[in-house]
Amino acid sequence: MITLKGENIYLRALEPEDLEFVHAVENDESIWDVSNTQTPFSKFLIKQYIENAHKDIYEVKQLRLVISSYNEKPLGMIDIFDFDFKNSRAGIGILVKDKENRGKGTGTEALKLLVSYCFNQLNLHQLYCNISEDNKVSIKMFEKQGFKQVGLKKDWNYINNSYKNEYLFQLLNKQDVH
């Protein structure tokens, strides 16, 4: 699929071979506050998730894709969640796993590809994301793709013994003809 291929990376479906990678991502406590995770995931549960990842987005209301280099190295994951067909919207989440792969445009390129897919293939009217007030890198990346801050959720997440605000960002499909 051309839509999901970029200059330096491409987005692909989860494969059984991704078990170790997904397990490492989901159990990395350093990113749990970003993903709102509170407990570790077993390989058994992740294997079941991967086995069911082929289900249609219209049925399961989500889609998780691997951000992959062209030498087949998984770099991160990008998700469509809360897919709402009636209201033509979905949430987006993204994570580049290793620090050495961050700050090189990987996330920006993946986000650009997914936005294009959501607007051109899924014909969505809008996308949104939730970003912690202190995640300046993600804020900058989403703003670079045209997302606008439309809301502030005060004291939304309890992280490291204090409450953090979370911003709501939104991107409307300017080509939408609804």
Notes on the structure:
The protein contains 6 helices and 7 strands, in the order βααααβββαβαββ. By secondary structure, it is of the alpha+beta class. It has a domain at 2-124: Gcn5-related N-acetyltransferase (GNAT) (Aminopeptidase, 3-Layer(aba) Sandwich), CATH 3.40.630. A 7-stranded mixed sheet has the order 1-2-3-4-5-7-6. β3 and β4 (89-96) form a beta hairpin. The protein is globular.
What order do the helices and strands come in, and which of them pair?
Elements: E1 9-13, H1 19-26, H2 32-35, H3 43-51, H4 57-60, E2 63-69, E3 74-84, E4 89-96, H5 106-120, E5 126-132, H6 136-144, E6 148-159, E7 162-172
Parallel strand pairs: 4-5
Antiparallel strand pairs: 1-2, 2-3, 3-4, 5-7, 6-7
Helix pairs in contact: 1-3
Please name the CATH topology of the domain at 2-124. Answer: Aminopeptidase
Number of helices: 6
CATH superfamily of the domain at 2-124: Gcn5-related N-acetyltransferase (GNAT)
**Strand order across the largest sheet:** 1-2-3-4-5-7-6
Total beta strand runs:
7
What is the CATH class designation of the domain at 2-124?
Answer: Alpha Beta
What does the largest sheet look like? 7 strands, mixed
Structural class estimated from helices and strands: alpha+beta
Helical residue percent? Answer: 25-40%
Amino-to-carboxy terminus distance? 26 Å
- Uncertain stretches: none
List the helices and strands in order. EHHHHEEEHEHEE
Rg, rounded, reads 16 Å
Label the overall shape.
globular
Which architecture of the domain at 2-124 per CATH?
A: 3-Layer(aba) Sandwich
